Amino acid sequence: MATGETGFSDVMYDLVSVQYHALKAGHDYGQYVRDARNAGYDDVASFFEEVMTEDSRRAARCHELLRELSAKEDTGRTA
Question: pTM for the whole thing?
Answer without folding.
Answer: 0.76
